[in-house]
Structure formats: C-alpha cells, structure tokens
Amino acid sequence: MNDILASMSNFNFCYRIVPCLADPARRSSLGLKAALVALHLVYAGILFLFDSDLIEKTKEEPWYTAIYLLLFVVALIQYFVTSCSSPGYVLDAMRDVNEKNSLYRRSSMLSKQPASSKSGSFVITVEGSESERNTQGSNITSWTKLVLDMYPPGTSIRTFTCSYCNVEQPPRAKHCHDCDKCVLQFDHHCVWLGTCIGRGNHCQFWWYIFEETALCLWTGILYITYLKANILRVWWKDAVMILLLVTLSIALIFLLLLLIFHRQVFSFTQYFVSRMIHGFRRSSFHFYASHKSHRVVTHS
C-alpha cells in the first residue's frame, strides 16, 4: 500500500513539473512523437553502427553523408512544425470574418455622419436598409451569409450547423471528435502528429510526407547496399538489417500512396479555395451594398 501511495506521489510530482502529462490525450501524443523520433534514430544509428563501408565513404566523400543527415534533420523539423501547426478551425475563421465586417460597419458609420445642410435644405442620413434590419432581427451574421452563399439556394442553415460547436460549417468542414473542434477542409486526424490535417496545415503535411518518403527511400538504398556487400558474414546482423528493411519497405509503400493521394487532394483544395474566395468577394459585395444609407431630403 505504501509503495502504491509513493508511486502516486511520484506521478503527481511529475505532473506538477510537466502539466501536459496529466492529460491522457496529450500524454499519448507525446509518447507517439517520442517513438517516431526514436524509430528514426534506430534506423540511422544501426546503419552507421553496422556499415563500416559507409563510415569509410563518409571520410572520403563527406558531402554524401552530410546531405543524408541534412535530409534526416529537415524531415524531423518538418514533422514538429506540422505537429504544432493549426489545421484552421471554423470558429477562428468565423470570428475573423465577423470582426472584419464589424470594423467595416463602424468605419462606414463614422464616414457618413448625419448632419449636412446644403442650399437651404437639410439632409438626414439613416444608416442601414430594410434588408439589414431584417438580417439583424433574424440574428444572421456575416459569417452565416458567407457560408450560405457556398451552398445551393434554399439550403437550410440547420443542415450545415455543427451540433457540437453550434457553428455554421462551410463545405468540407467537419467536427473532429479528438480535437473537439470543427476544422476547415477536414482531411483526417493524424495520431502520429497529434493534430488534425486541414486547410491551415495541409501544405506543411504534404511537404513532411515528401521529405519522409525521400528519407525512407535513401535509407532503404543504404540498407540494400550493405546487404549486397556483407550478406552471410554475420547472420544476426543480416537478420536485423533484413527485418528493418522489410518494415521500411512497408512504410515506404504507405508513404508513396499517401503522397500521391494528398497531391491530388492538394490540387482539388487549391481549386476549392479559389472558388471560396470568389464566393467571399461576391458575398461581401452584396453584404456591403446592403449598408448603403438612405437619404431623406426636407426642403425648408
């Protein structure tokens, strides 16, 4: 019993030092990240530990190993950059659009003050049209108007409102139950990265997959070169290298398929973003046009 209490106190002490370890989800994410980094180090370390020819080649042609190690470091850096990036949350985009439209309305109201007299007449400026009053009365925000323009006419707001976040989702947005947030152009939640892949970080994710594929391919070539030169010399070394090479080959096939798939998705996303920007400009034009002031002229 005392041992259990002592171990629990040790865990609590660790949680106080590193608060993120207290969250099971973040603890699992950190564990997977540590495992991925360790896997990279194992593959590279065993290669340099077993392959004496590679060590000799490094002495003769240091640029070759330097480029390989550079790719190794860049791939790991890209991994952490992608894991720390935001996928683009719907709630953040909604706040940004609403704030920009609110600033526009304020600046428009300040630039059109209702007090100008001209040639014996006075002009009363009334801000806001009937359509604006209807919009405000029905609590339809500028974000809602923007999202509505992305769907076919007659679409109900309820059909694209998230039941968890209670926000209007643009096309291809989806609620992630792991992050508990709606993500723009949601692709998937990557457990190895510990974050979602969406509009905000899809490009970084593609570059990480590209660099990881190149690194796996180069490492596989180095493993095959070693086995060709040293096969049947030390059986246990050959067994370790073959086992690692088989695992690496499976990972390489998976990465190549993932790279091709996400290249197609990235091309489609570029087209979708251009259409979305066009819809935003059109929606903004109609939204701003509805704020034109009505002038009532009364002669003296």
The average pLDDT value, as a whole number, equals 79
Number of helices: 9
How many domains would you count in the coordinates? 1
Q: Which ranges are low-confidence, i.e. pLDDT below 50, for 5 or more consecutive residues?
A: 116-138, 283-300
Helix content: 55-70%
| Residue share in β-strands | 5-15%
Computed over alpha carbons, the radius of gyration is 29 Å
**What order do the SSEs take from the amino end to the carboxyl end, as H and E?**
HHHHHEEHHEEEEHHE
Task: Give the strand tally.
Answer: 7
**Alpha-carbon distance between the two ends:** 95 Å
Major sheet description: 3 strands, antiparallel
Q: Order of strands side by side in the largest beta sheet? A: 1-2-7
Structural class of the helices, strands and pairings?
mainly alpha
Q: Could you say which overall geometry the principal axes of the C-alpha atoms support?
A: elongated
Q: For this entry, what is the oligomeric state of its chains?
A: single chain
Could you walk me through the main structural features you see in this protein, from its secondary elements to its overall organization?
This protein is mainly alpha-helical and 300 residues long. The protein has one domain. 65% of the residues lie in helices and 9% in strands. The strands form 3 sheets. A 3-stranded antiparallel beta sheet has the order 1-2-7, with no helix packed on it. Strand 1 (116-118) and strand 2 (121-126) form a beta hairpin. Helix 8 (202-230) runs antiparallel to helix 9 (235-289). The model is unreliable at 116-138 and 283-300 (pLDDT under 50).
